[in-house]
Design a protein that fits this description.
The protein is of the alpha/beta class and about 280 residues long. It has 2 domains: about 150 residues, P-loop containing nucleotide triphosphate hydrolases (Rossmann fold); about 60 residues, no CATH class. The protein contains 10 helices and 14 strands. The chain is globular and about 55 Å long.
Length: about 280
């Protein structure tokens, strides 16, 4: 007697529908801006319930990959799968009910309050026959509480500090109530205290069951917070896996051209990169 098995890349059994092993997957992508090709044959699968961080030098294609995963950049070739479905064939609102994106350096409309901006995260759940509802109000309140900006609800976004604004944008993404959250350099332009504040919030969201994908420049933050790292160089994936396997002195030199030592973080035990004196000239 034969036993039914799930298709490759899925989990499940013969008694129920198969669930993709990865909620978000890129297959053989070619990514380009006009005539500039950034990546060819680029494939990556995001582990479910992971905090995946994409790392690599400037210009390697990190943010471009994230844009393709979020369907804001159409690949020249290949496909992106969201819960096993080709994302380009899905309706925009259906994608937005499953996946939220916090872009790099978002810009808020003029004279908009925190509450109004966060409420825009409910747009995917509304339509001609479904306008603002008690469920929307609850989702916005929960997002404001989760990001600890409820007391800023009536403030103008333009009057907030950088760290406050970043938490407000995160609140808007959370108001979408998606299981997938994509973050493009969420700590850019923030001082160290606000960086830690935002990353701690992301870690908490991951612990609550969400799948997070972030692009980060700081290797030590990536190693401390990620459960899964994707290292890129020149438009290709060089290595991926747990931080302890990816962040090695040899790999840092290969990816970033930086001579370093990798030691345990005294606080978390995760890999910590310590550049050698004159590392940039010797790499």
């Amino acid at each position: 007697m034969s036993t039914a098995r799930p298709a490759p890349g899925t989990t499940g059994d013969a008694t129920g529908p198969a669930t993709p092993a990865s909620p978000l997957e890129a297959r053989d992508l070619t990514l380009a801006y006009d005539q500039l090709v950034v990546a060819r044959d680029l494939s990556v699968a995001i582990p479910r319930a992971s905090f995946t961080v994409i790392i690599g030098p400037n210009g390697c294609g990190k943010s471009t990959l994230l844009r393709a995963l979020a369907r804001t950049l159409k690949p020249r070739a290949g496909e992106v799968l969201l819960e096993g479905q080709p994302v380009e064939k899905m309706r925009g609102k259906d994608v937005a009910r499953r996946l939220a994106l916090l872009p790099q350096s978002p810009v808020a409309p003029e004279a908009i309050t925190v509450g109004d901006l966060v409420a825009r995260g409910r747009y995917p759940h509304q339509g001609i026959l479904r306008q603002w509802s008690p469920a929307d109000a609850r989702a916005v309140a929960a997002a404001l509480d989760a990001t600890e900006v409820a007391d800023l609800r009536d403030r103008y976004v333009s009057d907030l500090s950088g760290g406050q604004r970043q938490r407000v944008w995160l609140a808007m993404a959370l108001a979408q109530e998606t299981d997938l959250l994509l973050l493009d350099e969420p700590t850019t332009y923030l001082d160290i205290a606000h960086q830690v504040e935002v990353m701690d919030l992301c870690a908490r969201l991951h612990e609550e069951g969400r799948t997070l994908v972030a692009v980060l420049h700081d290797l030590n933050q990536a190693a401390r917070y990620a459960t899964h790292l994707v290292a890129m160089r020149d438009g290709r994936v060089v290595a991926e896996g747990p931080p302890a396997e990816v962040v090695t002195a040899e790999r840092v030199r290969e990816v970033f051209g930086l001579a370093c030592r990798v030691v345990p973080d005294p606080e978390t035990g995760t890999p910590m990169v310590v550049p050698l004196r004159g590392a940039a000239t010797r790499a």
